[in-house]
Amino acid sequence: MFFMYLHKFFTTPINPASTSGDKCHWRLILLPLTLSLGFSLFYGILGLQRAFKTEYVAQDDAREYVFWMQQFVDPELFHNDLIADYFQSITPLGYATLYKVMANLGINPLLLSKILPIFLGLIVTIYCFYLSLKIFPVPGAAFITTLLLNQSLWFQSDLVSATPRSFVYPLLLAFFYYLIRSSWLIICLIIMLSGLFYPPLLFICLGILFIRLRHNYFLLVAIAVLAFLVMSPYILASSEFSPVVTATQAWMMPELWTEGRHPFFDYNSAKFWLIGQHSGILPPLMPPLIWMGLFFPMVQRKLDKFPLVRIVNTEVKILLQIIIVSLILFFAAHTFLLKLFFPTRYTVHTLRIVMAIAAGITLTVILDWLFQTYRKKRQLWQPALAVTLAIVLLLYPNFSGRFPTSDYRQSTASVLYKFLQQQPKNSLVATLADEADNIPTFAQRPILVGREYALPFHLGYYSQIRQRTIDLIHAQYSQDLTPAKQLIQKYGVDFWLVESTSFKVEYLTSKTWLKSFQPVFTEAVSNLSKNTTPALATLTKYCSVLETGNFTLLKADCIIDTKLQS
To answer: Residue 337: is its pLDDT beyond 90?
Structure first.
């Protein structure tokens, strides 16, 4: 009986000609759609539990985009701050506007970044469900597709980051859906939203339009002009910190190699081209059942064995078009390195959608085949395999041990944050501690440098960050206080944060991103290896204004006033 119900739920098709107001239509899609939304909401709540686990929690990538937006709540924060100005310049206008509007409504940017993924997930689910129905009018298959896509999204941190790339999925799915329906006014709106929220998405949309509108040059050109106009403000804003690193410069930068701040290149060619985080063509897609999409071309050719595949709509061709455009842009991004941003930005999102849809169709026709063979010759293996697939589909995330992958970062340095919040709003903190990544978000105070904010893409910005980091390493580990005093005066540092292990060799060597800053890094390691004591280490008690946990906060004025020399 259960096997019969399983077959009815997953493989009953709807009449493509039926309308959304048709009672039979709604009766068939209501349960699958409700379950799809239910699972999306459930996964979002799991992520939300981690987001509010403690008082000071923020998603890793969200820290880069959200910290400066606290200006929407208090305009005096991060005034004339290099790091805030840079991230504001590279933040798409639509994304920033959304946070500003919500801030005006009383929703703090950090709070919004935590709750936004739930709403984006529901939008993704709705468009994915109806897009799947347009290609393969089986509500059960649409449920499988949305479930696989939602699981895949929550196995990665794209959606939960609440950064501009979180909007890729709702915008892409909406674009594909309305493209199949030829709703050109809505497509123009999506083109505008793509440019306002995630500009690289425009290249994917335009590429697919080029394939589908080869004989309608007027419409194609009109949409391309619209895309250019929408993208112009983003190009002009980021040009403030131009130029962008060239391919030749990137090749020479240790920051873009293994153990660098943003590793891209790899001496292992296979790893570089196949599974590199920013360079590889094969994304680490989860859950495992999503890879069933690779068998879709096979089942599509076996019409006699898999009769349900006959109702696949001709619009399934959009999947191939997406793959073609994605691969072209992938290799174009490699050719024009960093000019089109990272190559994986053009494959990881689109392939996830394509594979989810293809896997949904494949699993559905396999379930139908199992039922058909069971009716002809009843054997235990057919229902056993069908039930196994259903259990794996529904429960795999529960047994994976790493679901959902939220990448939330929590801190216990509440005393430090509360102390800094009581200081003047332009108080600049210098530190090599990892805590630098949290201070702008949780303490709302600027920092001199921080790993999270040391992005080596725009030389107008990174050359300043690089010099700051070199000066900081030299000053912190020098046996003379002069470099520390010079750094404080040069950059207007107000506080200097050190850890109890800051002056040990292991502390410095563990921060692999600092190895890019030569020769000062090697010199500092060498001096510490000789058991020499940096001048700053002798002031950790004398100039301390706060000691909490592993941290000691030094007053910069005290360092300036001391007469100590080595």
So the answer is: no
Residues 6+ apart with CB under 8 A from 64: 87, 163, 452, 453
Which secondary-structure segment (H or E) carries 529?
A: helix 520-529
Note if the pTM is more than 0.90.
yes
Q: Flag whether pLDDT at 31 surpasses 70.
A: yes
Higher pLDDT, 375 or 426: 426
| Burial tier of 399 (Cβ tally within 10 Å: 0-12, 13-18, 19+) | exposed
* Distance in angstroms (rounded) separating the CA atoms of residues 362 and 344: 26
Has residue 21 got a pLDDT over 60? no
DSSP one-letter string for 152-177: HHHTSSTTTT-SGGGGHHHHHHHHHH
pLDDT at 4: 63
* C-alpha distances in Å from residue 138, one per residue of 38, 143, 312, 452: 19, 9, 9, 45
Q: Which pLDDT tens digit goes with each residue over 220-248? A: 888 888 888 888 777 766 677 888 898 88
DSSP letter at 244 equals: B
| Listed residue (78, 88, 86) closest to 425, CA to CA | 78
DSSP character at residue 560:
H
* Among the listed residues 508, 536, 535, 512, the one whose alpha carbon sits nearest the alpha carbon of residue 523: 508
What DSSP string runs through 381-442? HHHHHHHHHHHHHHHHHHHHSS-S---EEE---HHHHHHHHTS-TT--EEE-SGGGGTHHHH
pLDDT at 187: 94
List, as one string, the DSSP characters of 305-364.
Answer: T-GGGGG--GGGHHHHHHHHHHHHHHHHHHHTTTTS--GGGGTHHHHHHHHHHHHHHHHH
pLDDT of residue 55: 87
Output the six-digit token pair for 346. 């053009």
Pick from 397-406, 422-431, 471-480: least confident:
397-406
- Do 149 and 353 touch, CB atoms closer than 8 A? yes
- What CA–CA distances, in Å, run from 343 to 92, 199, 286, 325? 19, 14, 20, 12
Q: What is the Cα–Cα distance from 237 to 250, expressed in whole angstroms?
A: 22
Spatial contact of 109 and 155, defined as CB atoms under 8 Å apart: no
Cα dihedral 193, 199, 203, 204 in deg (nearest 10):
-60
Question: How far is residue 84's CA from residue 71's CA, in Å, rounded to a whole number?
Answer: 10
> Distance (Å, rounded) from C-alpha 493 to C-alpha 13?
67
Cis peptide before 404 (omega within 30 of 0): yes
CA distance 336 to 331: 9
Residue 157 pLDDT grade (very low, low, confident, very high; cuts 50, 70, 90):
confident
CB hemisphere CA count around 264 (13 angstroms):
23
